Amino acid sequence: MSVCGEAVGAGSLPSELVVHIFSFLAAPDRLRASAACSHWRECLFYPALWPRLRLSLRVSPTERPRLEFLMRKCGWFVRELRVQFAADNYPTGGGGAAAGEGAAVAGDGEAPPPLSPRWLDLLRTYLELVLCVLSSVRNNRNLQKLSLFGDISILQQHGTISNTYLGKVDPDGKKIKQIQQLFEEILGNSRQLKWLSCGLMLQIVTPTSLSSLSNPIANTMEHLSLLDNHIPGNTTLITAVELERFVNLRSLALDFCDFTAEMARVLADSNHVPLHRLSLLVHSVSIMHKSLDNMPKDENWQALTRNSTNLRVYIMAFDVKSDDMLRILKPSIPLERIHFDSYVTCVSGAVVDLISRQYDKFLTHFILMNDVIDMSAFPDLSDNRNEDPLVLLAWRCTRLSLLAVHGYTVWAHNLIAIARLRGSDLKVLEVTEESIEFDQGELADQDVDPVHNFIEQVSLGLGRPWHAVMDIELLSVFTEPTRHFYREMQSFSEGI
């Protein structure tokens, strides 16, 4: 090809045209196309091409050079930044078991279990990556959405990390202070921020962080998620007085113990726009250090739902005792999704029955997970085999679209009943193979293969092929609960 007698190559195309071509390509294709020449590489990071940046980073030293390059190129203009930190290939030994997976938990006055050098290297790298991200966006005034999540629950050791292990990698606390200052600078410099989400990020958010937001920005904020539940004692990351500034908040995510009756009254005020989504994380450690005494009463929930008629609630409970759950589950909560995750304390049939009675008009998602070591002794929710709580849940909750069970006994005939009751409206039915039990009468029938017949009957009930799943297939739901909650909370809030 020639123009006016001169050869034209890829490098001769105007930058505006190259950027226009890139705008039609997916991010991986843009990266491949940018390898054509240096001119195209320069066009790759044109601001209009990168309004959103979503990163899932391994906590590994090899990530840092790539992260620094990308944040240097995009950090100053990106409008939506979502970063997820995850420690893959967790080292073993030296106290490195995950919380709830046999990890020793230090009590009052006891020395916490030691961490291996590899664990400390992971924590040190994690701090460096967080610093890299925050420093790159500190002066970005165009930032509209900021979401930060650190899946470091395996490092937290039930909350002891902030008091013990951080001192080994940041003995004078300079890095933590720098991280907190950078975060406050980002909030203070923001001019368009409408979405702020920070979860399990290891002391990024402090009780004074939100005061850095100007009143105009606080007044226009639409989503706020503060799940940095690392602070011991009764300290909370936001108070009811501070929440009064966020009059346009449509979505909120907090530790349940931080969501008080006074906060519910603030959100129920006529000056506040209707709240659409509320995500609450209930953790046994939080209940132990804080209290349920200040939680909203049923009249507070009633007032809130009068002002927010479309409000829907998502609750995730970690190792919460059934007695506490019975206190938490007020009748007037418009509960749409609930996820139980247990390592020590099992959910009782009474709790499941209460949920099916109180939230039959709202409930769409029900996840029941019990990660016990003894695979031969799964708890059975049903005291009366003729009235299984999960079957009653499927019968009463006519909007149920997702049911996932692992680590609890589910009888084959009850699973068939659930499939028939909800039919094709039950979009997701995930039950691990080891959770399913058969009656002795079914197994004794030599003329029928009980497993084949069971799968066939469930498939007929759902109107589609179905099979039980292996535990590994449920990795994102059952073995990475905090990451699953973060993803669900994001999609739950964005689905307004």
TrEMBL record:
Residues 7-53 form the F-box domain. GO terms for biological process: positive regulation of protein ubiquitination. InterPro entries: F-box-like_dom_sf (IPR036047), F-box_dom (IPR001810), LRR_dom_sf (IPR032675). SMART domains: FBOX (SM00256). It holds the Pfam family F-box-like. Transmembrane segments: none annotated. PANTHER family: F-BOX ONLY PROTEIN 33. This is FBX33 protein. It comes from Chloropsis hardwickii.
